[in-house]
Write a structure and sequence with these properties.
Helix content: 55-70%
Shape: globular
Strand content: under 5%
Order of helices and strands: HHHHHHH
Number of strands: 0
Number of domains: 1
Structural class: mainly alpha
Radius of gyration: 21 Å
Largest sheet: none
């Protein structure tokens, strides 16, 4: 099920090969390990996607892709996992990261965080600049908190993916054993 499910929702290597803009990367993007799905590659891809998802700006997918190519785990799943951050989730995640960093730094590094600026779709450039300034004003607690939260999410994602994949395999093996036993009793 995990392999079939992910293969159904993720693009195939053949579809990606058809994208002409990716030709600049040569065969680096088409190494078989980057497209293979197993317990290890899926768990590493989820961990990398969760870690890189908290990187600010458009560098999330780029960094997840670089990690996938470098360490040879499933590329599409790593890229898809970074999508948990978006304009609606990034502010709450960064506030949690700030609190996490403030907790680790203790009272010396913590001060009451400024309220995030109002979001305006009509003035997107100014809104993004205001959010950048807001993040910079949060300083060391945010920087440490983002790293710690990203590391924590990656570790949890890795463990959960390994456990879920193993549990599915155990259930599938038991079902297969029951089917074989039922066939042998006929």
């Amino acid at each position: 099920m995990p392999r079939r499910y992910f293969k159904r929702i993720l693009p195939s290597v053949d579809k990606v090969r058809q994208v002409r803009a990716l030709a600049i990367f040569g065969d680096a993007l088409f190494h078989p390990a980057l497209w293979h799905l197993n317990r290890r590659s899926a768990a590493l891809a989820v961990a990398a996607g969760l870690f890189c998802g908290l990187i600010p700006g458009p560098l999330q997918m780029l960094s997840a892709g670089i990690l996938a190519v470098w360490f040879r785990f499933n590329l599409p799943l790593a890229l898809a996992t970074t999508l948990y951050t978006n304009p609606f989730t990034i502010v709450p995640l960064y506030l949690v990261a700030y609190q996490y960093g403030a907790l680790v730094l203790g009272a010396a590094g913590a001060h009451e965080p400024a309220a995030p600026p109002a979001w305006s779709w009509t003035q997107l450039g100014a809104t993004l600049e205001a959010y950048g300034q807001w993040m910079l004003s949060l300083g060391a607690p945010l920087a440490l908190g983002v790293f710690l939260l990203a590391s924590t999410l990656a570790l949890i994602g890795y463990i959960v993916m390994r456990v879920l994949w193993s549990a599915y395999l155990r259930i599938a093996w038991q079902a297969r054993r029951r089917r074989r036993a039922a066939r042998s009793h006929r």
